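Discussion board: Methods & Data

I've been asked by a reviewer to show the raw model output for two of the constructs in my manuscript, not just the figures. I'm not sure how much to include, so I'm pasting the format here to get opinions. Each protein appears as its amino acid sequence followed by a line of discrete structure tokens. Is this the kind of thing reviewers expect to see in a supplement, or should I convert it first? Here is construct A:
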Amino acid sequence: MSVLRRGSVHSNNGAVVLVFAIVAALYFTRDILIPLAFALTFTFMLTPVVTYLEKLRMGRVLPVVLTVLVSIAAAGWITWIIAGQLVDVASQLPTYRQNIHSKIETLRNRGKGPLGRAADSAKDIGREISGPDAPAIVPAPSAQNQKQRNAPKIVGPPVPVQIVQTRTNGLADLPDFVKPFLAPLGRAGIILIFTIFMLVKREDLRNRLLRLVGLGQLNMMTQALDDAAQRVSRYLFIQFLVNAGFGMLFAIGLYLIGVPNPVLWGVLAGIMRIVPYVGTLFAATLPIILSLAVFDGWLPPMLVFLLFAGLELIIGNFVEPWLYGAHTGISSLALLVTAVFWTVMWGPAGLILSTPLTVCVVVLGRYFPQLSFLHVLLGDEQALEAEAQLYQRLLAMDQPEARAVVDSFLKGRRLIELYDAVLIPALSLAEQDRHNGTIDVAHEEFLFLSINEMIAEFSEYHSVLSSPEEEGAAAREPGPAVQFSGRILCLPAHDQADEITAAMLAQLLEQEGYVALSFPHGTPPLEMLALADPGIDDVICVSALPPYAFAPARMICKQIRGRFPKIKLVAGMWGFAGNAEKAKARFERYQPDRLVTDLAQALEQIEELVSPPRSDELQPESTIREPELQVEKSRSTPSATTHGVLLYLSVLLEENLNGAGHVSAAPDVHRGLRGLLQSHRDPVYG
């Protein structure tokens, strides 16, 4: 155990060191990685077009060049139109000078309005509450100030000082004008070169990356590359649709409000939303400022703000998390956190590329075990399965939230699915912790009590059939439970967990129409069976919850086979993941008739076990006597309620006989109850 813990600690330390090394490399090599990341994103966008042109037998270089040139021309054309429209809007602003001046005066003289007067009144009240102002203490003049006061005063206006720069020609100012544009142009040129190279040599780059990882990881790396490509492509396509929809709705709203150039602001808003969180604010600022200048009142600017805020709240908080999370595999919180991380690392470029980069990181964590924690932290998959959530909430003694987990899983599902997929696995986790000594008695009792309460509440639960046709067919055709005249006795193999699973099986059998009885643990099984007095038509089910219940289950099967060698016996090894036939062989010569591993399989096997033989399998004499036997059985078989009451009273009297010797009438009553039970059953055979 210590070796395993030491190995896990070393692996975790290695993963942490690897993450810090990757973060440092991303930060110090950002001047190279930022153009490379943009080029890779453009490659994902342009590859479908290049592939289509290549199918027209145009070669490789010509489709790449045509696609890149057309993309640059389209981007330049859109930029030119938007810039021209913005210049026109700026040139029209002087015509709205009067509105701008009146709003500035309103803001400057805000103290004369109702709000300003209310603010002044609040200030006066605060000043009165704080008390009268103390007289200001004027410090005595120092000796130096006294000398300056006695000095003769110089009369005359001050002399202004102005620094005049010498005029230079236009060529001398050219470097200062061009310098701010050199860095973006240089980076754009690097991105263009990288994009063309990746489009031309994309297969060669893929093969080199596969060779770098190693031939032994060829399958895993191929799946990772395909997964990353599909997710990034879906993200870019969905982002285009979302931004286009946002711009269209924003333009329609501005048109209805009456803001000039609504199409321009809609297109600009759609384009600026490429920059998460920041671009939308910039795109909304311009139409708000324009509405302030164009309209006389304050209502249209407020409507523009409300329009932008409403669209952004709906799309940003509901539409985008739903679409991006479902198609990129990233949780909504991870999108926000990674946007901040990439912005700190790479600045505005990191903010634009945050989602595609995070997609690649999640894919790496999904396919590489050393980085699996990234997939757990950033992915949108459920962190804990339903059984783990239920077990954790029961360990925390939070019964309402545990019940919420159960109710959430049960929506649209059958009760047997809840038992097989949630409750029994949660009990298995509890059994493992109990045998390992990591759960105390209080938590164990609370867990068992809570699950027992859930099972009791589900006693009246009935699964909804899938269609009215199936419901009508089920009502018309009687099932095997109606034709079966025996009982199904569910015995726990060892402990309380086995008792709970036996109660689940009995409950499901009762809902199917069988007469089922479940017994508590602690009493020897043969004593419980002696009280139940099993007959020739009964079925005994031994309920055992692995991993520590196999030996008790085999022992009980051995005892039952020794006492009732011909009775139908079913062993339930709930959640057993191994080979059922090999597990059945471990019972040696005391094998059960059926060995099942889940409740659904148990219902199927019991139905098959108790189903009457077909007409072609029946012998002539049994066919002749069948109505007589059926009438005899119907006369001798009690109802489930009557038999359950009699059995319960027998158990109570048995306890009184063992613990309270002063009850003198108990033995006679006990013998009478046993006679009632035996009078309705066939004799025990052996």
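Construct B, same format:
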Amino acid sequence: MIRCETKRMGRPGSSVMPITIMPSAVVVAAWVMMGGIPRVSQAADDTPDRPNVVWIMTEDNSKHYLRHFDSDGAPTPRIEAMAAHGVTFDRAFSNAPVCSVARTTLITGCYAPRLGTQFHRKLVPASLPDDLPMFPAELRRAGYHTSNRKKMDYNATASPDVWDESSGKAHWKNRGAGQPFFHVRTITATHESRLHPQTNPENGPLETAADAVVLPPYFPDTPEFRHTRAKYQDLITAVDAKVGAVLDELAADGLLESTFVFYFGDHGGVLPRSKGYVYETGLHVPLVVRVPDAFADTVDRELGSRTKGFVSFIDFGPTVLNLAQAEIPSGMDGKPFLGDGVQVGEVDARDTTIGYADRMDAKYDMNRSIRVRDWKYIRHFEPIFPDSLVNVYRYQMRAYQQWKQLHDAGKLDFTQDAFFRPRTPEALYNLAEDPHETINLADAPEHAGQLRMMRSRLEQELREWPDLSFMTEVYLVDEAMGDPVAYGQDHVAEIQRYIETANLCLQPFDQVEDLLRAALDDTDPLVRYWALVAALSLGDAATPLLPEIERRLLDVEPFICTRAVEYVALFGDKDPRTNLYRSLNRAISEAEALMIIRTAIFLQEHTGGRFPIDMQRSKLDVLKPKKNALSMGYWKYLNSIAKDNPPQSRRQLNPAAVEDPPPPVKTIPGTSGK
């Protein structure tokens, strides 16, 4: 398990090598290009004992849009000049491909599924353990001024001691005289909303030539996609100037050469198939750290150098604490990559990163990924749902809309159409040869050993956290959010069993048929749930279990009934919509309603018109007190597209005969709930 229990090592007696400046034509050219940053005396901070740290975060952009990281990207002269006076991390990763989960990972230094903070956005905020504070609180205890301008978007409750100030006016200038500071500046100019019609008019003016951009092979090559890519590169260029403005402000205040400045994206994005997905375009972010002259001796690297060592968001907090000579809480999962006690060889040898994606707004999914050097493994725990399953907010982008229109018209090639097909439970990619993750090698016999190794490494991580998503958000919201970490430790044995049940789909059906049949009738409701998920992942092969699956249409738990509805709709010979409506009306929480609405959208849009949904059959009583409930947007979406037409089937469909089930009673996993 990737976890650090190392305490901060002080500067006295440090064995790190002094940093040296590489006078090269490239560095000089970059310095001239940016107009030069004025050198101002350090004034009150002439000989600081500890460095300041500034984070400049841009929203929703992976590394693929910057020329400094990708030859097809936009020029960013100010960021490139930062790199000339610092270090470029070519393999930096967000652990999550969406804002709130990524930012919570950053602020805690922990994997979100271990903390119960993996759902975007939170229905209920998670409480953190007393011994695991958000890391700026540790900086404040060490004497730092902490300020955030201004986005937080955490899925955990922030204690009052995290920020001295967090607002649109928060600034390092508000600190005490000579006080070191940590400041976060979020630049919103690249947020995905900037590609929505209201801010990106059709055929609007561009600085980047649309015919010159390079599109990945999974996109259709259309004027709309080219315009969208070109527009986003324009936004990256605009962001570069904003980054430069922060550097100029530090220089004007005499603080630049006593301040580590991090530039990075808060996760990937933002063209289709990036934000919200565990592909490289969703997780692989740009990271440049400018090293100040006053603290060059704490960094064991040459200025202008690059490293391919893997760092991820769990490591950023520990790194800041290490630079500040503050204590790193032992409960953090990450470890520092800069500062005293950090050796360049050890960082360069790091070769692994973990990713996770769960609910995004109202779109439920569950994916986990591990990248080891240039090999990438993705475990899709919900493979029946295509990547294209609608996210109402994301589909405001015209490129998303056009992609779906071309799919519906049958005008996509095989690679472009993969976005709309069901996924496989496992995917294996060789990024050295397939950087766009379009060639799945999971079934290739010659790579069976690589597949087993990466599957095992990822499963070990999920077991050791333990991964709370196996409890489902339905149970977490009901039972766990007061202390999710303790809840996970109390339910380790159950979570191990749920992982084993979900992974039965990775074996041939004839080897696991009896195990699945028993699991479908288990007294633990979540064993039944994951058995249904495994059956769905096996597809047609699991049809011998149809009698047991049809019994689950009347499960006491509405969200479990819904998984049976999915299987019967896809692989059975009955119309299960009556059970779907009944389950939705019996939902007793928004989390449960969201899961069931996801199924309704899937049946409406991905079963060839056989199961149109009539949302007038659902009262959604559980949502009426929640004016801004996530589910309501999807309920309205379904109402806008659903028509109560008779089902059209490849078989003769018979309405499922059901009797009223008993009222729903939430049972504690591990106890009788059948």
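Answer (T.O., handling editor elsewhere):
This is acceptable in a supplement if you add a one-line summary per construct. For B, something like: The CA atoms of residues 112 and 118 lie 5 Å apart.
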